[in-house]
UniProtKB/TrEMBL annotation:
<keyword id="KW-0479">Metal-binding</keyword>
<comment type="function">
    <text>An essential GTPase which binds GTP, GDP and possibly (p)ppGpp with moderate affinity, with high nucleotide exchange rates and a fairly low GTP hydrolysis rate. Plays a role in control of the cell cycle, stress response, ribosome biogenesis and in those bacteria that undergo differentiation, in morphogenesis control.</text>
</comment>
<dbReference type="InterPro" id="IPR006073">
    <property type="entry name" value="GTP-bd"/>
</dbReference>
<dbReference type="GO" id="GO:0005737">
    <property type="term" value="C:cytoplasm"/>
</dbReference>
<feature type="binding site">
    <location>
        <begin position="282"/>
        <end position="285"/>
    </location>
    <ligand>
        <name>GTP</name>
    </ligand>
</feature>
<feature type="binding site">
    <location>
        <begin position="190"/>
        <end position="194"/>
    </location>
    <ligand>
        <name>GTP</name>
    </ligand>
</feature>
<feature type="binding site">
    <location>
        <begin position="165"/>
        <end position="172"/>
    </location>
    <ligand>
        <name>GTP</name>
    </ligand>
</feature>
<dbReference type="InterPro" id="IPR031167">
    <property type="entry name" value="G_OBG"/>
</dbReference>
<dbReference type="InterPro" id="IPR015349">
    <property type="entry name" value="OCT_dom"/>
</dbReference>
<feature type="binding site">
    <location>
        <position position="172"/>
    </location>
    <ligand>
        <name>Mg(2+)</name>
    </ligand>
</feature>
<dbReference type="InterPro" id="IPR045086">
    <property type="entry name" value="OBG_GTPase"/>
</dbReference>
<feature type="binding site">
    <location>
        <position position="192"/>
    </location>
    <ligand>
        <name>Mg(2+)</name>
    </ligand>
</feature>
<protein>
    <recommendedName>
        <fullName>GTPase Obg</fullName>
        <ecNumber>3.6.5.-</ecNumber>
    </recommendedName>
</protein>
<feature type="binding site">
    <location>
        <begin position="315"/>
        <end position="317"/>
    </location>
    <ligand>
        <name>GTP</name>
    </ligand>
</feature>
<dbReference type="Pfam" id="PF01926">
    <property type="entry name" value="MMR_HSR1"/>
</dbReference>
<dbReference type="GO" id="GO:0005525">
    <property type="term" value="F:GTP binding"/>
</dbReference>
<keyword id="KW-0342">GTP-binding</keyword>
């Protein structure tokens, strides 16, 4: 099945933690700090692959994570950088934030390779914190957290001309007749599910890109069937060709079909409905007119040409009238601005406050006991015996919201706070 949109989870890599270590060499009584820096986390990168025309791959894999940065090591060795993850998408893919619907990036035009989420910066090793008064820093900097998002991918194909019409009117046959595209063609009574692009080459270097937009049905603008998915592709086109079964081989009225398609376009978007439109009255080779019956081509022309819609009778099977149609379309394209519809970015990533799970309870002696994995880890980084190390830990407690939580629970100056074997007297700043 053709996949026109997909919702996926993306996550960049976390920065590696800085390392705490000291030089240990023979005949050197007290080596200085030599903890290395953590590596940078990997980026999440979207890249256009011109060989793709669907988002099918994203239907099977929904989570994508870049590599985390490695921790720093002794002897000032830098942690390894995390591996980037590259997500290849068709040109015309719009990446939106799933929660707000805002456009993050439109993978079109110059946007062929874009970093959507940056990896976390690696933390500094303890050798960066050495000073004349603090020559043995017992702490290093943790790596910056990863960035994560749920995003929606929407494919809006890029073509000069879009073929629209009800299922089984000959759009795929016409595309294969006049371009290098080879869509699967059969007398199906249901719609093609996958749009196809083809390059139409005319003489003297003239030509354009044409897309077979899957058959639109009544109610498409309200989401009937896959209508909204298909209508998205029309937004990027500059000219529309209504392909209609002029011979009524399926018993449908071609005029009613054209009106129905026009109605769906208007309901979906006023801008789309105002695009230049040409009517290709297909299957003229199958027209059989009984004596006294009105010629269907004449009927279509008398109905729509007064409204400004040029009608070309064609046979996509035999090629009759196709050349004349294509040259007329080529002339119309020259009157339509070439600026492709482009979605400007409207989203700015706001880093989420890192989830720092902790608990604060009051024990039977009235002490405030604070525990949590991040707190325990930070205590391992930090030399609380030094003034600078203690200030470093204080800033962490404040940033993590732990001091606010203590105040909320009614702590008073002089009360005792316990954390993994450490006891502190609480005083407000």
């Amino acid at each position: 099945m053709f996949a026109d949109n997909a919702k996926i989870y993306i996550r960049s890599g976390k920065g590696g933690d800085g390392h705490v270590s000291f030089r240990r060499e023979k005949f050197v009584a007290a080596g200085g700090p030599d903890g290395g820096d953590g590596g940078k986390g990997g980026d999440v990168i979207f890249q256009v692959d011109k060989g793709l025309n669907t988002l099918n791959d994203f239907r099977h894999v929904r989570k994508y994570k870049a590599g985390d940065g490695g921790a720093g090591e002794k002897r000032k060795r830098h942690g390894a950088d995390g591996e980037d993850i590259i997500l290849k998408v068709p040109e015309g893919t719009v990446v939106r934030d799933a929660e707000s619907g805002q456009v993050i990036v439109d993978m079109s035009g110059e946007n062929q390779r874009v970093v959507v989420l940056k990896g976390g910066k690696g933390g500094l090793g303890n050798h960066h914190f050495a000073t004349p008064t603090m020559q043995v820093p017992q702490y290093a900097q943790p790596g910056k957290p990863a960035q994560e998002l749920y995003v929606v991918l929407e494919l809006k194909m890029i073509a000069d001309v879009g073929l629209v019409g009800f299922p089984n009117v000959g759009k795929s046959t016409l595309l294969s007749r006049c371009s290098n595209a080879r869509p699967e063609i059969a007398n199906y009574h249901f719609t093609t599910l996958q749009p196809h692009l083809g390059v139409v080459d005319l003489a003297q270097g003239e030509g354009f890109v044409m897309a077979d937009i899957p058959g639109i049905i009544e109610g498409a603008a309200e989401g009937a069937g896959l209508g909204l998915d298909f209508l998205r592709h029309i937004e990027r086109t500059r000219v529309l060709i209504h392909v209609v079964d002029a011979a009524s081989t399926e018993g449908r009225d071609p005029i009613e079909d054209i009106r129905a398609i026009q109605h769906e376009l208007e309901k979906y978007s006023v801008d789309v409905s105002k695009k230049p439109q040409i009517i290709a009255a297909n299957k003229v080779d199958s027209i059989v007119t009984e004596e006294g019956e009105e010629d269907p081509i004449r009927r279509i022309r008398e109905t729509f040409e007064p409204e400004g819609f040029k009608v070309y009778p064609i046979s996509a099977v035999s090629g009759e009238g196709v050349k004349e149609l294509l040259w007329y379309v080529n002339d119309v394209l020259k009157t339509v601005p070439k600026e492709a519809m482009f979605y400007e970015s409207e989203y700015e990533y706001v880093p989420q406050v890192e989830d720092l799970p902790y608990t604060v309870v009051i024990d039977d002696k009235g002490n405030f006991v604070v525990e949590g994995p991040k707190i325990e880890k930070m205590l391992g980084y930090t030399n609380l015996e030094s003034e600078k190390g203690f200030q470093f830990f204080q800033k962490f407690l404040k940033k993590a919201g732990i001091l606010d939580k203590l105040e909320e629970m009614g702590i008073n100056e002089g009360d005792t706070v316990r954390m993994y074997g450490h006891a502190f007297d609480y005083y407000r700043e």
